[in-house]
Structure formats: structure tokens, C-alpha cells
Specification:
3 domains, Peripla_BP_I (chains A, B), LacI family DNA-binding transcriptional regulator (chains A, B), 344 residues, DNA-binding, transcription regulation (chains A, B), Rossmann fold, homodimer, alpha/beta
Chain lengths: 344, 344
DNA sequence: TTCCGTAACCCAAACGTTTGGGCCAAACGT
DNA sequence: ACGTTTGGCCCAAACGTTTGGGTTACGGAA
């Protein structure tokens, strides 16, 4: 691995040991594994590769970064890594990056404008080759500015403007939720819609409300409530809904954690979830299926979304023109919206 | 921020514009903000600083890294970032790193030996100045080897050998749990102990069992079950416990997610948690307090643990001798272990 | 035989920074 | 007045890599 005090193994040390020039070694070790254009003779190349492997040579990113101007670093900005949705997406990003020899640097923006700015600046100062933003806002002036400045980035999970993005098809997801609840006979429904600036919540809500509208049922404005994407936020909002005299028979939370909060609120009101009231979430977090009352949710391929985002970025960095991608969600019906049935 | 095609602003470009030498600029911009040893005159220094700020100069890490041999990069290896405990700790690490002008690179090891090896190699190839491991194993040959190789690292959350570490005081935490359950009259208890190679589970279990032993109650070996630190693992193990003819009256899971799984299993067995059976977790995840049946847990300052780990590493890198730190956990009693009471 | 092509290398510059040595002039001490 | 310090700056080398441009030497074509 790494020797104690031994001088780090460098192109030069290899070249010297073999009586070659450093540039020859560099070309051999860089060229496509077999016979690059200006590579060395098969024999020499073999000796070089063998010695490099034996010494455990690892190119110094400072050297190559300095020379090439590229760092093979990708910056990833998310609202919070401790949000399971984002950390799972990040795992997908990092996994795909690793396969391409790229390294990712993650940072939290906390959905705060000032923090985004400083963290992005930090990443740029690190000379990342490109960025992936998981904290885009609808109508995002910051991103627009960055784009005109020539910074290369893609969005993940949330879309904004027409910056290239990889997201779930959230309108469809909202529709699936509506279809499910309507199919169970719920005509009096409410939505816990997440914060208004996130496309995820907005699109899921729009899809949901749209489906109901197309079936002649209007979801009133005061039945669409905004809240943070977390448990306590969901609980607070659900409590408000359940306190009202004519409470809904079903609640669609655009996020599993908000839904879990709603579960708690329902219990506080003495309601049995699944019979007295239907509650469903979104994202199909691993937790959802394992809860005491399993939570109906809309499954989204989060890890795959992360992978695709990284791939999109690499294509962008390669100079290609890229298009946004929408990944297909699928319904995961469980006990929280009705009589117990065999889970998917 | 970053201009479109404009040449990046460098020490040289600043020096040229001011008719100075690049080394002068460097010294001014590096020296302790006021009057370094060999800095320039107050006037010149001021001009340099002003222009640097105006142009938005950011030192190129490739250049300085190459010259100094240091990268100001810290590698962080954890089992999984999508594990809330680890991602929260990581947030603490990253937060503290940011304050010191360091950047962290995170990677998942999945608690898999091969993956650890390759990911660590990757981080080392990136020339990180030091590492923080969140996936240590009791008796960890890999870490021992790394240490003798001169790699500088600290451990977080889990301890191993006598490598410097920052962890919760898990024995104490286990004792707090035992004290709580025993105080409620539970003498017939079981432990969901997590995987056997993690010090966290082992120490929590040891503290728990030790406390009972000191009070004359033996927790039999077949009442201490190992499982992964996740919900489905906890559910499976709890199911086994509850299926047995003489089932325990209380279960201590060394992890909140395993406890949530146990909650589900209890429900499957028609038991009402809090009255029919007591279940408690560990870590006091934000979720715990918000669950339909709030989960008793042992609160651990996860974010602070991360911060301390980073600080410990910086001291280590500065050449100081460092000691491990154990942070104090505190009990968070809730409804899942007894009659509803006001939460902490 | 001469000339060209090419395989297989070597040379050298450049990327941006840091840092041990200068060097000059002004200030100071005696 | 003369030597010494020191403030304020410049010089140059080095870190490891990549890459456009040589330079040989040899094989084959004319």
C-alpha cells in the first residue's frame, strides 16, 4: 500500500529504474491499455507496466491536475446528506463516479441560499470538473448565473428551468398516488406537499391534483399544505388537517418521512391508519415496508437516478449535448391505505 | 464567481498587474492576515489583498498541493452514508472540516473487506492528508497494517485496538438502557446486539448485560442476538424472540432502526408496544421521537462526535499526541417502554 | 545507392505554488 | 563617516505530470 518513509513512487523513479525517459513511461501508463499511438515497444511497455504495478504507482493528481487543468473531481451539493433520499442518490452518484475513476465531493446546502453560494464556491475552488446539484429550486437565479458563467453542472432529483436534470417522473408519481387512493374510493383527500420551492413536491402535487380533477373531483387549495420534508413537519401539518371538523379520509404526503409524521398524528387523534384513515408517502424508503403499519408509497429508483446524473454529467463534460431524463416511479401499495394485502 | 472564458486568476496574473513578483504576492496572501515575517509593506500588502479579492482569486490546490505535498483533503470511510447515524456523523466531520479550510471525501465501505481496501486505496491515491474510518472492526488487521505503513487516521463511532478514536461511551449507554428497563421492573430481557464485529454493538451489549449482572440478573446468551443495524434485520431477530414460548418482556436494540423493526414484529404478534412489551433503541435518531409510538432511546451526540473526530485528526496531523475520546450518552425515555410520559 | 517512413524513444516546456536565498537601499548605531 | 541591520522585495528551483516536437536507427521502396 503506502510505504512508511519511502519516497513516493513517481513517474521519474520508474523511468530511472528502467533507464527510460519519464515521458515514455507516462505515455505507456496512460495510453489505452494495449498499444497506444505513440507508445513504446511491446517489450518496454510490458516492463514499465510490470514495475509500475509492483511499486504500486499511483499518479499524483496534483501533478496531472496542474498540467491538464482537469481534476477528475465532481462536486455534489445536496440539501442534507442525512436525508435518506439524498444520501441514497449520492451513493448512486458516487458508485458511478468510482467506476469512471472520478471522485466526488459532497456538501450540504441546507436549502439555504447563502450556504449554497459558499459551498459551491468551495467546490469550485477545489477545481471540480463539474457539479451535480440536488437542491435546485424552481426558478433558480443562482443556477442560471452559474450556467452563464460557464460552470458545468446537472441537476438531480429536483429540476429547475431547463438545466439538464435527472429526476423521477414526479407528475406521473403523483398520478399513481391519486389513482390508488381514488381506486379505494377516497374522494375527500389532502396533500402534504413539501416546501413550495422544490419541484419534487410541486410536481407530485400537480400530478395528484390533476388526476383527481380529470375525474371530476376538485382538491381544494386548503387541502394542499406545505411543510418541510421531514417527520416533525409532516406531523404538524397532519395534525392541523385532522383537527379540522371535516377531515379528509386520505392523506398523500409527497415524502415518506412526512408520511411517518402523519402516521404519528393520526395515532394521536385516535385513528387507526389503514381503516379509519389512509396515509401514503413517496419514495418507498426501505423503512416504509418495515414500519409497524407498512406504509404505502411510490417507489423511485433513487440510486439509479444518482447513477444517471453522474453519467449525464460526464457526457456534458465530454462536450455532448444532453437531455434531461425522467425515471418511472411505481406504486407500492401497503397496509397504510387499506386492508392488509401482500406487499410487492 | 467564475468568469466564462477568462484566464483563471493566478498569483502571476495578480503580480503582473501590480508590477510585483509572484513570490511577494504569495507571501502576502499566505502570511497570517496581518504582517507576516517576510511580508511586504503594509501598503503593498493592502494593494495585493484588494486586487486578489476583487478578482476573486482562489489558490489552485493542484499547484499548492504539488509544492507542499499536502492536499488539505480528508478521506472519510463509512459503512454506508445512507445510514442516518453515519451520515449525521459525517455532517459533523464535514462541518468542522469546512471551518478549517479542509475538504472531505466520503466513501462507502459496506462493511466489506475488499471494498474497504479499494476505497482506501482510492482515497490515498487522491493524496488525502489523513483519514477517518467509521467502519472499524474489533481486532482490525487492515487498520493495523495501515498504521504501520504510516498512514494517519482516526476512528469515529467504532473503536478498534488502540487507534485514536472518538466514540460514544457505549458501555455507559448500555448501562443507561439496563438501568431504565430494570427500573421499570423488567427482569426478563433480550438484546438485539448488531453485528459482532462492531464495537458499538458489543460495548452497548456488554454495558447492558453488565448492569443486569451486577443486580443479580443473568441475561442468558440465547437472549443476545446478532443482526445487521437495519430495520429488516431487527424485525427478523425480534420475530424470533417473540416466537419463543417464554418471550422476554423487554427488548433492547442497540440501534434505532433495528428497534423500529422490532416494533413491527411486536405488532405482527399482536402485542401492544409500551404495555404488552417494552422496546427501546439507541442513538435517538430524530425519527424516534416522532414515531406513532415514540421510541425510547439513548441519545448520542452524533454530529459532535463527527466534529471531534475531525479535530482529533487535525491534531494528529499537526504531530501532536492524541487520546481517544468517549462522549456521554443520555437516556431518552418515551412511550415504547412504558406508560406515556412527557418526552425530554 | 539514396531517400523516405516510421517505430521507439528522448527533450523540454508548461501548469501554479511555495520557499530558501539573494540583493538593494534606507535606517540605525557608534 | 562607516559598518551593520533590516525592511522590502526579486530570483529560481522544485513538486509530478502531460504533450508537441525532436532525434535516432532501421527497414523498405525507388
Amino acid at each position: 500500500m503506502a510505504d512508511p518513509k519511502a519516497r513516493p513512487v513517481t513517474l521519474r523513479s520508474i523511468a530511472d529504474q528502467l533507464g527510460l525517459h519519464v515521458s515514455t513511461v507516462s505515455r505507456v501508463l496512460n495510453g489505452p491499455s494495449e498499444g497506444g499511438a505513440r507508445a513504446a515497444s511491446g517489450d518496454t511497455a510490458e516492463r514499465i507496466r510490470r514495475l509500475a504495478a509492483e511499486l504500486g504507482y499511483q499518479p499524483d493528481p496534483h501533478g496531472s491536475g496542474l498540467r491538464t487543468g482537469r481534476s477528475r473531481l465532481v462536486g455534489v451539493l445536496v440539501p442534507r446528506l442525512s436525508d435518506l433520499v439524498l444520501s441514497t442518490i449520492y451513493e448512486g452518484i458516487d458508485e458511478a463516479a468510482g467506476e469512471r475513476g472520478l471522485t466526488t465531493i459532497a456538501a450540504n446546502s441546507l436549502d439555504d441560499d447563502e450556504t449554497r453560494r459558499t459551498r459551491t464556491k468551495m467546490l469550485l475552488a477545489r477545481r471540480v470538473d463539474g457539479l451535480i446539484f440536488g437542491d435546485a429550486r424552481l426558478d433558480d437565479a443562482f443556477l442560471d448565473r452559474l450556467a452563464t458563467d460557464g460552470v458545468r453542472f446537472v441537476l438531480v432529483n429536483r429540476r429547475a428551468g431547463n438545466h439538464p436534470s435527472v429526476t423521477p417522473d414526479d407528475r406521473l408519481g403523483g398520478r399513481l398516488a391519486a389513482e390508488h387512493l381514488l381506486g379505494l374510493g377516497h374522494t375527500d383527500v389532502a396533500v402534504i406537499a413539501g416546501p413550495p420551492f422544490a419541484s419534487t413536491g410541486a410536481d407530485r402535487t400537480a400530478g395528484f391534483v390533476g388526476h383527481y380533477r380529470e375525474h371530476g373531483i376538485r382538491v381544494p387549495d386548503d387541502r394542499v399544505l406545505h411543510s418541510p420534508f421531514d417527520t416533525s413537519g409532516g406531523r404538524a401539518v397532519a395534525d392541523r388537517l385532522l383537527r379540522s371538523p371535516n377531515r379528509p379520509t386520505a392523506i398523500f404526503a409527497v415524502n415518506d418521512f412526512a408520511a411517518i409524521g402523519a402516521l404519528g398524528a393520526a395515532r394521536d387523534h385516535g385513528l387507526h391508519v389503514g381503516t379509519d384513515i389512509a396515509i401514503m408517502g413517496y419514495n418507498d424508503t426501505p423503512l416504509a415496508a418495515e414500519l409497524p403499519i407498512p406504509l404505502t408509497s411510490v417507489a423511485v429508483p433513487m440510486r439509479e437516478i444518482g447513477r444517471r446524473a453522474l453519467e449525464l454529467l460526464t457526457r456534458l463534460l465530454a462536450g455532448e449535448n444532453v437531455d434531461s431524463e425522467r425515471l418511472r416511479p411505481v406504486l407500492a401499495p401497503r397496509a397504510s391505505t387499506g386492508p392488509r394485502r401482500t406487499g410487492p
